[in-house]
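Quick entry, no commentary yet.
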Amino acid sequence: MTAIARQTIRYERKREAILDAAAMLFNARGLSGTIIADVAQSVGLTTTSVTYYYRRKEDLAAACLLRAIATMDALVARAEAEVDTGPARLTRFLELYFGHLADIAEGRAPEGINFWDLRALTGLQAESSMTAFVALFRRFRELLRAPSGPIFSRIEQNARAHLIFSAVIRAKGWARRYETEDYPRAAARMADILINGVAAGGRTWAPATLELAAARGADASEVSRDAFLKAATELVNEYGYRGASVDRISARLKVTKGSFYHHNDTKDGLVAACFGRTFEVIRRAHRVSATVADDGWSRLCAACSALVRHQFSEDGPLLRLSALSATAEAVRPGLLAEIGRLSEKTAGMIADGIADGSIRAIDATIAAELVNGMINAAAELSKWSPATTIDTAAGLFVKPLMFGVFSPPDQLRATD
């Protein structure tokens, strides 16, 4: 081996080590909470050594994102090559994907960066990363266009692809609760729910309409507390935690920075309050659905439809849970515990439906993760399906999960 070849190998190994360390730190602290010096320390290098490879933190984050996108794209390509129907491709992809997650958990593969902070990037890094991310999304959309499958309109393709894509991205988080030897079972159960839905035979799509808006009290101040919560939620969802700066929130409300701090102690405190607002809306959906429906299926459809409609209402959106990675470490455990309790409430509703026969026999825990992920992802549905409205959102996004992502768009009944 020549000296140049050895030098190239050393360069690549060091670069990969930097990317491995950076991905873990970005996942744990978010883009805003990580600096290049942290990455350098974690791999035993100086900051100058790291900047030799990646001059800025944004360059490093973009490289991590492009590597993660390429890894997932390769799994989709392999599934496409091995089987030729949409359901079989999705099933095979999930087998491969959970196998990759097992490799990460057992140290055979590096941890990939989460995609949550993608919109926090700016400039050329944002452009290249988003271009690659959109190309990956289109690969998922092609899963719905297998020759033997139903024919969907573009808006239906985009909505269902977003549903699948978001579920896959989110699975990386909840899969950690399982032993790696159980990953194949989790993959199979996730595939079963996505492909076959949750409805027992004979169920119809007629969700009850729920009212989730809370009564607003009089507020004599220049701008209400709810206005700050709504603006901060919209901006965190759109630009990520870092991108939702105090200046940007103030500009959205047309108030001064001084006015922001008159109403809010810190941005961290405001974002924590946004989580509280989101959690309360979800609780309200659970409570109200129990008063208008008498079986688990009907309650689940009513609650999910109401929450997805809420994302498009003047009272929406809900805060995307991806903001959690950038919250203050002191409050994060409490938020995680609250998210866990809400997930258990959803799983309980599904288990009730299985018990009363309105929901087919499925894994209630995994189904709850998919349901909660779908509600969370609805905050971005309009970005992938711009023609979606408050009146069409539930049919485009909730119904496919209830009956299966490959079910015909005009299907009203599930089959036995």
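second:
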Amino acid sequence: MINKNYDLLGEQLAESGLEMSIDLFTGIAAGASIIGGIFGSSQADSANREAERAQKKAQKIADKQADITNTYNQKAFEAEKQDYFAARQFQYNTAVRQWQYDTEIQDFRYLQDVKKYGASVDNYQNQLAFNTLGAQMAYESQQASFNELLTSTAFEGQASLVENLQNTGRASLGQAGNSRVKAMQSTLAEQGRNAAIMSASLVSGEREFQRGMQEVALQKYGSDLQAAANLMIKPQALPEIIKPVMGPARTFIEPAEVLPGAVPPAQRTSTLMPLIGGITSAASSIGNYTMNFTG
């Protein structure tokens, strides 16, 4: 009867020394697997540390970039505000200076117009005085001419009267009867004719005098109207120029803070898996050896 527990192969291997070699090979393979697992675990740990360093470096760069961007945005915002308020103040100051200049020019022109108006009023009054003086001289000239006519007519009348009286006396003394009467009638007729001529001359002279006085008055009136037409209109002060005012200021909004860019977390590799794999591989090698030689 065969003993099932009898290991013929083992006995033979033991006898031949092959069993020791297989055990040694199996131990080396198992040790290599464990060492490979330890090495893989070490590499995984090194890779994890490198990934963490890279992640920290990327995060540091992202933080620095965010700080640079926020600093630049803030400085740009402050510079924009400063430039805006400086330009706003400059524009207001320029508008105020322009307003002052325009006001001075307006006042200067008004004063010049007032002076011109005053000179125009003086010229108008002087022209009226000149017109009055000229009309007065014309009146006096017309009156003098009419007075000369009256005087001349009076002298002519007196001379004619004397002559008629003389003729009448001679007629009454030199003849008698009908001849005397005719002579006296002729003398009286001549005297009447002379009186009519002088009367007509006086009437005509008086009419001419009246026309002359009217023409003088009309010329004075026309000259006065012309002087009034040349008179400037009294200037009036213009309304004040509206003074510029500072408008409402622009509303500024602070720039939003830029957050650091998202950096993905470091990809970690398990340091136990290579070790577990090595141990599992070693165990598998030993198990296979046992199964092969115990079978």
